[in-house]
Every structure is written in structure tokens, then in C-alpha cells.
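Give me C-alpha cells for this 124-residue protein.
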Amino acid sequence: MEYVLIVAAVYNLIGAFTMWFQPVPESTSDASMPFDYMQYRIFTGGTAFVFALIYLYVFYVPASAVPLLVFGIALKLWSFIASLISFKKYSFPKEEFLKVGVGNLVFAILFVLYLVTSTDIISQ
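Here you go.
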């Protein structure tokens, strides 16, 4: 079950690099792009990158799992909720909702299962 941490780290790294290196939409000119669009992309990618490092750290230092994965679960649930709101209200593409929102929901559930089934971690 601990290998879910490695898979989650890779998932987050892919998300980080996607945020950093995806091209700016062609229909978005500098004049029509919100002033903070690129800052949000850079920050969001950095957040995903840092959490990838956290998941790798938890893999190697399982005693730190409970506090760090609680934050990971919260962030992944928030990503799901944000994606769901964006999908329902703001035309967030369905394929992105499935990839980002549902993908993060799956990892949140897997992290909960990891914590629940790892009784030696919780007892520390």
C-alpha cells in the first residue's frame, strides 16, 4: 500500500510540469489574459511539486505519515471540490475534471486507506 505514495508523487510531478510548461492558450492575448494567470500557474505547479516531495519523504520516513498525509488529503479533497465547482459553474472541461478533480479524489481516498491500514504508523 505504501507504493501509493510513489504513484501520487509521480502524479503530482506530472501536474507540476504540466502547469509550468503547457503553452498559453492561443486565444488568450496578453491584453485579455488576467494579470495573475501566469502567477497562479507557476504557484500551483510549485505546490504540486512540493507535495510530490512530501509524498516521497513519507515513503522513506513513514513515521511522518499521519501529519503530512492529513494535509495531503485536505489538499486533494480541495482540488476535487474546486474542480467540481469549476466543472459545474465555469465550463471546466470534463476531461480535465476527470483528470484533475477525480484523480485527486482517488488519491485522497487511497491516502485515507493507507493511514487506516497502516496501524503501525498510527500507533507511533
